[in-house]
Amino acid sequence: MVRRTKEEAQETRSQILDAAEQAFYERGVARTTLADIAALAGVTRGAIYWHFSNKSDLLQALLDTLHEPLDELARASESEDELDPLGCMRKLLIRLFHQVALDPKTRRINEILFHKCEFTDEMCDMRRQRQTHSLECNLRIGLTLRNAVHRGQLPENLDTTRGAVCLHAYINGLIGQWLLVPDSFQLQQEAERWVEAGLDMLRLSPSLRN
Q1: What are the DNA-binding region positions (predicted)?
Q2: Per-residue pLDDT tens for 1-18?
Q3: Measured between alpha carbons, how far is 41 from 43 in angstroms, rounded to an integer?
Q4: HSE (CB half, 13 Å, CA atoms) of 176?
Q5: Which residue, among 107, 76, 79, has the nearest Cα to 91 in the 3D structure?
Q6: Residue of 9, 106, 126, 181 with fewest CB within 10 Å of its CB?
């Protein structure tokens, strides 16, 4: 009975997340209420509050579903024992572009984040979470870059802190622009070339030298 109850709770949580994804995508985060999500999911608002504190918490749970497939590669490139950290990063970024372009769920959630989410008063918690996440991403990218410098894959005098910020902004910019105007360039078909362009910035830009 306990196991069944846990399974039912997980099923309800999944229903709520699916409904939130649909509502946020169709209406935008600001115009979507928890009542809208409850109606789509076929549950009560109380059921939503059982699983999520507020709309910000619900959106964060949606974003968390995107991280899992890429975490293994990210961890590998951050390891000092990894012999090919730059190669791991290259694979990670190519896979990211492919997922955004080819996986409908990944594309929808990214479009919600980039173009359908306003950091209004009720979303202050989400704004703080995004700020923390952005800073953590810069640190993780910087760690990978330092490992790549140590392995002789990037210049010894690379400013890895500035390089991490530039690469992060480049990746976010590409994804955000493609989601807004998908016909403007080919993200999936030319994923490897877009990634190499970002890595060339690290290898060749004089402005990224100490």
Answers
A1: 33-52
A2: 445 588 888 899 999 999
A3: 6
A4: 11
A5: 76
A6: 181
